[in-house]
Amino acid sequence: MTGIPADNYSPTLAGAHRPEIPPTGDERAVLTALLDWHRATFEAKCLGVPPGRLAERGVPPSTLSLHGLVRHLAGVERWWFSIQLAGEDLPMLFYSDDDPDQDFVFADADAEADLDLWRRECERSRAIVATRSLDDTGTRRRDGAMVSLRFVLAHLVAEYARHNGHADLLRERLDGVTGA
């Protein structure tokens, strides 16, 4: 059966490509397709924005910007997949206990480099997912609770959905572009 095309959900920005979401299939196929769809939606929101404008704050005094979301989501990918699920000993991205807002409060950061970092973190996350079953677990570092791949995928779908709403508003505020 053919998947549901991206444009059944909303108009697509020029140049954006999102994977189809299978309307049937196993849980893994649906969860990973939804997450990749949301990742592609987020990337589409950044597509065509000059790098210098990605850091513009859409609703002062909020620190929220597309560039900040790029940095935040790179950190989210690393935290949930590489650190918590895979148990890798990696530094946090754009976060420390002394400076927890580095993802949104930054100066002179390179937007293109941060987008590339986010893409690499997404690829690393996909590689981790490919080697595990939905029931495989990792340990949540903050409280020691176990988390399954199923939980992490569902959580990241919700995380991206929430931030894609922010990205919709930020992009429209920047240049009037909607859709994706």
Total beta strand runs: 2
Strands of the widest sheet, in order across it, are 1-2
CATH topology: Four Helix Bundle (Hemerythrin (Met), subunit A)
Note the beta-strand portion: under 5%
Any overview of this molecule?
48% of the residues lie in helices and 3% in strands. The protein is globular and about 45 Å long. Residues 4-10 have low confidence and may be disordered. Strand 1 and strand 2 (146-148) form a beta hairpin. Strands 1-2 form a two-stranded antiparallel sheet. It has one domain (19-174): Up-down Bundle (Four Helix Bundle (Hemerythrin (Met), subunit A)). It has 180 residues and is mainly alpha-helical. It has helices at 27-46, 66-85, 111-130, 149-175, and strands spanning 137-139, 146-148. 35% of the residues are buried. Helix 1 (27-46) packs parallel to helix 4 (149-175), helix 2 packs parallel to helix 3 and helix 2 (66-85) packs antiparallel against helix 4 (149-175).
